[in-house]
Design brief:
Number of helices: 17
Shape: globular
Distance between the termini: 47 Å
Number of domains: 1
Structural class: alpha/beta
Largest sheet: 11 strands, mixed
Bound molecules: iron/sulfur cluster
CATH topology: TIM Barrel
Radius of gyration: 22 Å
CATH architecture: Alpha-Beta Barrel
Order of helices and strands: HHEHEHEHEHEHEHEEHHHHEHEEHHHH
Length: 453
């Protein structure tokens, strides 16, 4: 059943690894075990202790998406100061260790200054963790991306879709101009380029065409993530059309665009009701599913887990897989067979001189704020770094106002940092200036204004 309001309120950020201090993957692994989800194909809690942690550095945004997950209070909240961000970065490291994927996000993080962003990226890098900038791209200039890449940024993730209501773009296809411009902006900076697309009734039919677009740019785009509409946050749209948008329908539409049979849940990343993952190998016009050899990959994941290495760390994936194959003749045999099968599937492209590229597709199924399933929240692989510790993103979304307006203690003797200025605390949402309102609040205020006029 769903978490009650009281359970959401008291759902605590995950604790430290008190039971097994040297085993950072233990909390996630034990939650997955409780759900009977720690199968051989499961890599969460096996080759990494968490998939990613969001570090929200601002709640401000320069767009007003119809499915925005931010809360009504977002624009009234001040940016998190650097001392607190650094404390949260250390907290992420203490929980999850090396190579953790830290998402620098918001709101739109590019509304902060370039020196601030450089300092944040450098701090994450100093712990040996990976960083990704999540942005709508409007303010992510080449100059900004260059500075961040030099500071050690690993990924840039562009959110582009019709929920953003960008002026002058009437369809997902029209938005390809922006996607192409962003790809070019990030080129040759040693950054992985990823795209986020929110899926709702107005663009679900575009998935095959979008997949083809990303596949055609597999030399520049590393991953495309499709986030299914959810009833959470301040956006004017609410629940998805459950006859139209399901994990099954999105998987099928991706397969249609990929134009080859795909394998999902190999590897499994956390709870399969939350996440679906698949990947392709592309060489020119030749395409094949990457993970369609269960015996090889389950043995490989087990071997990597024994070596205590993270499968997801790009550039190290291939050398690590090869090293793992050297440890076992059986794995070596399976690996060789697998490589031959893939080379055969891609032969036409390879013979024409194309280098094989990998592109991944991810489906994220956020829950509605009032329909949180306990088991999924406990086995969550996508955390938010809150002042009190990492917390499942779905739970955080369901109590955002309380989380983002909470005062944060400073060093002994100093007063707590309050995200709301005293003025903001006093005026309340109903008296916020119109230009500060977004989503449902703005829509309601616009109706009122019309009536008055
Ligand atoms: S954020 Fe929500 S949907 Fe995503 S993994 Fe966590 S519990 Fe599942």
């Amino acid at each position: 059943m769903y978490l009650s309001k009281q359970e959401i309120h008291s759902f605590h950020p995950s604790g430290t690894q008190a039971q097994k201090p040297d085993d950072l993957a233990y909390p996630l692994r034990s939650a997955l075990e409780r759900e009977n989800l720690f199968a051989p194909e499961q890599i969460a809690g096996r080759t990494f202790p968490i998939a990613c942690v969001a570090l929200e550095i601002t709640q401000r945004c320069n767009l007003d998406c119809t499915l925005c997950y931010l809360s009504d209070m977002a624009e009234a909240v001040q940016d998190v100061p650097m001392f607190e961000l650094k404390r949260r970065i250390k907290m992420i490291y203490d929980h999850y260790g090396d190579y953790t994927n830290v998402q620098i996000t918001g709101g739109d993080p590019t509304l902060r200054s370039i020196p601030d962003l450089v300092e944040i990226v450098s701090e994450i890098k100093s712990y040996g963790m990976r960083s990704a900038l999540f942005t709508n791209g409007i303010k992510a200039s080449r100059e900004m991306l260059k500075a961040l890449a030099q500071a050690g940024l690993n990924d840039v993730v562009f959110h582009v879709d019709m929920t953003q209501e960008r002026k002058g773009y009437a369809s997902e296809k029209d938005l390809d101009v922006i996607r192409l411009e962003y790809i070019e902006r990030a080129q040759n900076l040693n950054l992985r380029v990823l795209f986020n697309t929110t899926i709702f009734d107005q663009n679900v039919a575009d998935i095959p065409r979008l997949v083809k677009f990303f596949k055609d740019h597999a030399d520049s785009v590393n991953l495309a993530s499709f986030q299914m509409q959810a009833d959470t946050g301040r956006g004017v749209l609410r629940e998805r059309d459950v006859d139209l948008i399901t994990q099954q329908s999105v998987m099928q539409l991706i397969e249609m665009g990929a134009d080859t049979p795909l394998t999902y849940d190999m590897p499994m990343i956390g709870h399969p009701d939350c996440n679906k993952y698949t990947a392709l190998l592309v060489a020119g016009n030749s395409v094949t599913s990457l993970y369609d050899d269960a015996p090889f990959f389950t043995k490989l994941f087990a071997e990597l887990a024994q070596q205590g290495v993270d499968w997801t760390v790009d550039r190290k994936v291939l050398p690590r897989a090869m090293k793992a194959c050297l440890t076992s003749p059986k794995l070596m045999r399976l690996g060789l067979l697998y490589s031959l099968k893939k080379a055969w599937a891609l032969r036409a492209g390879l013979l024409r001189g194309y280098r094989p590229q990998r592109i991944s597709f991810f489906i994220h199924n956020f829950m509605d704020a009032e329909k949180l399933e306990k088991g999924r929240c406990e086995a969550c692989v996508f955390m938010v770094a809150t002042a009190d510790g990492p917390l499942s993103m779905c739970v955080h979304n369901a109590k955002r106002d309380a989380m983002i307006t909470k005062a944060v203690p400073q060093a002994k003797g100093q007063t707590a940092w309050d995200p709301l200025t005293p003025h903001r605390r006093n005026i309340g949402l109903e008296n916020m200036p119109y230009k500060k309102l977004k989503g449902r609040q703005r829509a309601a205020a616009a109706v009122k204004r019309k009536k008055v006029a």
